[in-house]
Specification:
195 residues; elongated; mainly beta
Length: 195
């Protein structure tokens, strides 16, 4: 995973350097979003320990490099209840993801802009209430896609996205590669900048 994170960071920097400094119409992009949070991997299948569907909220700040490419910082908070035979089953577990990603979009003539993104960062995991495991932070990969809709004659865009998050859970007696997923709707505000 460390090699993948280094590759994502290098790709982000190279994309930023590859854009000519001259006369690009750039924007700062401020986004907020929220929705559901779920998991594609249980902590253990027998006896079962798993996370129930929960929710997510988040925000990002990005810089549009070209009409097609942007770099974003990202913060996402999720909360999921647990079930199963674990000592912390029945308690909510919080995750805080923070990192950066490279986004590629393709504007369509019908006003929709599909996009994909990928990046890296870290995820911090903590139990709500009485802790049955020590909070921990792990490197994480983040990836996904969605679609923007720009509101005509405004700087506001609405969007929907699905985001995946992969990291290693090695706490509370479990060793598992986690595949978390969030599905969100949100809004972005584009502020033109010149530099």
């Amino acid at each position: 995973m460390k090699r993948s994170m280094r590759f994502a960071a290098v790709a982000t920097v190279l994309a930023a350097l590859a854009v000519p400094a001259a006369a690009q119409q750039r924007s700062l992009i401020f986004s907020v979003y929220g929705g559901g949070a779920d998991h594609l991997a249980d902590l253990r299948s027998s006896p079962a320990v798993w996370f129930m569907p929960g929710y997510n909220v988040g925000a990002s700040v990005g810089l549009e490099l070209t009409r097609y490419i942007a770099v974003h910082t990202d913060f996402t908070f999720t909360r999921n209840p647990t079930k199963g035979s674990s000592s912390f089953a029945g308690a909510d577990v919080n995750r805080f993801f923070y990192g950066a990603h490279l986004e590629a979009r393709y504007p369509l003539s019908i006003g929709l802009d599909p996009f994909v993104f990928g990046g890296a960062g870290a995820v911090s995991v903590d139990q709500l209430g009485l802790d049955q495991f020590k909070p921990f932070t792990r490197p994480a990969l983040m990836y996904g896609g969605g679609v923007f809709y720009g509101i005509p004659r405004s700087r506001i865009e609405m969007f929907g996205e699905v985001k995946g998050l992969t990291y290693r859970w090695n706490a509370a007696g479990f060793r598992r590669t986690m595949f978390d997923v969030t599905y969100s709707v949100g809004a972005s505000y584009r502020l033109p900048v010149n530099f």
